[in-house]
What we know:
- The structure holds two protein chains of two kinds.
- Chain A is of the alpha+beta class.
- Chain A is built from 19 helices and 14 strands.
- Chain B is of the alpha/beta class.
- Chain B is globular and about 70 Å long.
- The interface between A and B is medium-sized, with 22 and 27 residues.
Amino acid sequence: MGNKKITGQDLAVRAHDIVVCMERTRASEYEALSxxxxxxxxxxxLRGAPIIEYGLLKEVGVHILSLGMGEVRPALELLAExxxxxxxxxxxxxxxxxxxxxxxxxxxxxxxxxxxxxxxITEMEQLTIVxxxxxxxxxxxxxxxxxxxxxxKLVERTLEIAHDGGFLITHRARGKDIIMxxxxxxxxxxxFAELVAAKGSSVVGRVLDLLRKAxxxxxxxxxxxxxxxGTKLNDVELAVLRALATGGFTPxxxxxxxxxxxxxxxxxxxxxxxxxxxxxxxxxxxxMALVASVRQGQLLPAxxxxxxxxAILNKLKQQGFIRSxxxxxxxxxxxxxxxxxxxxxxxxxxxxxxxxxxxxxxxxLDMAISLVNDGGVHASVEDDAVVAFRQGHAYVESILxxxxxxxxxxxxxxxxxxxxxxxMLLTVLP
Amino acid sequence: xxxAGQKDLLYRHFRAQGWxxxxxxxxxxxxxxGEREKLVTxxxxxxxxxxxxxxxxxxxxxxxxxxxxxxxxxxxxVRALMDHMRATRGYxxxxxxxxxxxxxxxxxxxxxxxVTLLEEDEFAAFDRAxxxxxxxxxxxxxxxxxxxxxxxxxxxxxxxxxxLLRSLTHTAWMEPDPFALMRRLVGVVGGIHAxxxxxxxxxxxxxxxxxAVFGVALAAGVGRIFHQFLGENDRSTxxxxxxxxxxxxxxxYEGMKSLRAFMLKSQGGSGPDLRAALGDAEExxxxxxxxxxxxxxxxxxxxxxxxxxxxxxxxxIAMEEAQVLPRLPRPWNPMVLKLAVLTAEYVSVAAxxxxxxxxxxxxxxxxxxxxxxxxxVPARDASQGDVGQVSLPLDEPTGR
Lengths: 430, 400
């Protein structure tokens, strides 16, 4: 099934993505996958939490983290097996949970490896993970799912669940069905579908992958050197890159300097596993502007080259300014125009960049740092759940007052399963 | 010990304010720079008071039952002791004849030197005012007498545990550097690992008491790291900083690392085996079970102020487990309890105590967590958050 490259870490990351996307929707075919995804979800929220009573944890798990009623215990047991929590039990009853979720070890890898070693992952779950893994890189033609080596019926059912579960969307472009992950391609799905239909998913996937690792590189430099971060690009890939920079995608920020002219800086899909709310769009644009300005200094300097964009952005975050230099005016003018920072004149031609310290700018700076330092796993946590684990029952009750009762939709069963049940009802039962 | 009653009063008063204390701490000096230490004097009650900026202040308590003693002279003596111990405050409790109260001038003089002069008869009013309204007299946790009896019992019955007892009652209190104290204490506990019997209640008690003292240093260490790294989640960044702090600075750390490599080499290793040994040495060059220690420190950084409540909690549980204090239902704070479990577990594992002892310690603390949650204790108790200026005992009921 082409799953040889699925590591324990991949397995856990994708399982987590899937349970987050599915929210309260459940498919009876997913058991080990759900347990693993739920265990990751619990672990992320339990990190740093105090000793918790089981009843409280269950309430938070079900009402805030969208776990099913019967899913909390198996997820906790997996965490206990991975030594990330300690269960205090009396007989079979769990009394309290002592969370000791590692801060530094690979949480995903450990849980994924344990699940793989348990051998309980079914063929359909494997197929789902392989598909989710592929869709994290790039949208693909629907036909691609049928070329993964699984039975046609299994693939169809997997796609059906994925669609109903909300971790796959389909767009029609150039006469083809293009499937994509709304987690990894939350913005511009139609444009991505068009690009994949025109150029093929492997080409688009490769370019996006390279861009993820080199966010905000200048288009002119890529075109001139025909490479991104040391990896060569062919003409088709360059065409995809131009399409990404000029199509209906996020308009790339531009910087005009006297020594290098006007340059556009291209970005791949935004890191993170959640769709950007519309009100954060402006913050993300500020982050891109910050990245573009440090990339300008790194790759197109007039005289003084920036060696580490990450270090420069971190300095700005920690000390609130970047030391003056003679290239700051042109390099950071766009950043200053957007109100992220101001350029303070020091001497005749030198300027110091001083952060305008607002929560929005701090968030933009964090996003910029994550853009230039990407490669890790990004997981979102529910603030309500984190606080609930620390505050106890009273807080949970106040949250529940604001929420509706749990409503758990179930993915309709497959025609085959329905037929089997009908047959059983007709033949076995009196 | 005619002043035992006075010591008990001071211990209770300090304890009820959330200060961690020890009675009769000896001050020694090496005779002529030689190997043998000579007892110079002792501190009646030595207390550590949590500060607002995540450290400990040293407080000296001195007791005197000799009625003719000049208060001003004794205050000067306490001041000298405070300077020796880098203490920020001194309390001098004196027994006086009714017709011979402490003169006002002497009180003013003492106060000018950071010493509060108190007559035994006025202590109750002083205590009630600072721990309004009932004072510390009925607080249901260990007293100086309980602590003394515990140490005497352990020392009398298990003479081979003497190095640990000496460390807990004496040397640990003389060490100003928290990381040095952690290193040494783990070493001392490790030194008696073969003597430890997990089935004996007094042994469980003494290891919990050792964990309490380790918790003092850990709290200060976490406070220091917190100011530098806040909520750092990058392993290498925190590890690098922590290693340097543990060994008293980067230069010293590099020196110790080279020394260790040299020692390993001089023991006759060579080739791939030596390279592997050196690699391991580098990996582990911090405290024993370095990964677990990192996790413990990082867990503490989630709530660094609560770390200063761990020693008190572990000491009460130590006394309960040793059966010198009755086991009472107490409103334990679940986060402090969790951090206390991780601390005691680390001490036991790092000192290579029998696995049964680790399980025994974890069970003792986890049982209390289960009891506390069964009683429906809220996660935020009344004492949370005001370390250093609380009028309620930390993590224990007031008994009022």
